[in-house]
Automatic annotation (TrEMBL):
Pfam families, per database record: Lipase_GDSL
GO MF assignments: hydrolase activity, acting on ester bonds
Sequence segments annotated as region (Disordered): 1-21
Keyword Transmembrane assigned: yes
Keyword Membrane applies: yes
Organism classification: Eukaryota, Viridiplantae, Streptophyta, Embryophyta, Tracheophyta
Keyword set, alphabetical order: Glycoprotein, Hydrolase, Membrane, Signal, Transmembrane, Transmembrane helix
Assigned protein family: Belongs to the 'GDSL' lipolytic enzyme family.
Domain of life per record: Eukaryota
InterPro entries, per the entry: GDSL, SGNH_hydro_sf, SGNH_plant_lipase-like
Residues spanning the membrane: 53-72
UniProt-recorded name of the protein: Uncharacterized protein
Gene3D superfamilies: SGNH hydrolase (3.40.50.1110)
Amino acid sequence: MNHKVDHFTSLTHRGSRQKSMHPLNCPNSCLFLSVLSKKKKKSQATMDSVRRFYVVIMVLVLGLKGISVVVMCEASTERCEFPALYNFGDSNSDTGGISSAITEVPPPNGETFFGHPSGRFSDGRLIVDFIAENLKLQYLSAYLDSIGTNFRQGANFATGGSSIRPPGYSPFHLVIQISQFVQFKSRTMALYDKLTSNRKTPPLKSGLPRPRDFSRALYTFDIGQNDLSYGFQHSSEEQVRASIPDILDQFSQAVQQLYKEGARFFWIHNTGPVGCLPYSFIYHQSKPNNLDQNRCVKSHNEVAQEFNKQLKDRIMSQLKVQLPQAAFTYVDMYAVKYALISNAKNQGFVDPMNFCCGSYYGYHIDCGKKAVVNGTVYGNPCDHPSMHISWDGIHYSEAANFWVANHILNGSFSDPPLPIHKACHYPTNM
């Protein structure tokens, strides 16, 4: 898709851009060169002295009179200019993968923003779309989509139903997604320089990533929910909990593989409160004392919280040590989504256990399908999707995705607490 950034200006920080000082304009992973001569530069009095600080990595004296080259990294004041975005995940961030590989995601999906099915399990945009808008990038084309795709500013390897480890609902688990990326990068590197800019037939050079952008891109993950959901359906909660270390071993291996391929900037979502999905409420509410004050399935949320605890520890205590040149941002999707559900009415939404499209109450009718039962038509979408947190009982509406994105992209739910446009910095690595 080639939609540009028009719709999310409330999330865009419009400060001045000093590209010569920006880490992503430098050759070595958030390091930039500043040539200092005898003529001293004027100090910038307007810069906050508390936030503006530099970590001096190395000083190279070149032997030229009065000139030194200082390699430095500014930790928090410069905006990152990510040239591309690569996403790995499930249906929460699928922008057309499963629709291209298996079957179309039918209408009324996509009706609110795109006006037609867009391969997304929602009435409109997903959080990954708002991430792209915030970074001033085009919406991501699905890697599996062969029609009308443009990969210059990244690609989306997420597919509906995917999990970190097999088995699961989808064959496109994370190992496969990483393999697809490796193949995608390899073919791009081999082909890019062979193509001319004036070529008129596919593949077009303008539709391929620039090879140098792979190490400068932001790599995002929104995956893990299906590992838990599939486990709840096919095993006990105790077995699901016991499987978490192995799931995270495979997640770590995926990140390490991307690092070997040159990825350096990672934005990782933990899993949301799966027990708060209307689907979970409908099918698991019968157990005594199984619901919390928001009517979420407590036991499922407790497993999700344990997953997130171990995920954060894996990132902060292991991956950051093993991959010292990487910058990691851990995003607490559980906290922000639970906050929305807890305050649904105050935020202008209806009961969070209601959903807009499809039905699970007595008759399982997927969104996009209809059924007539005793003269009553089931499956029609609601009239006001923007008033619902849940679109179809499992996936969020565009309005809810916008609300969540608005709260995570500014760094309020991140560790380190930096907005996404500063996710190339290393405040805790240095």
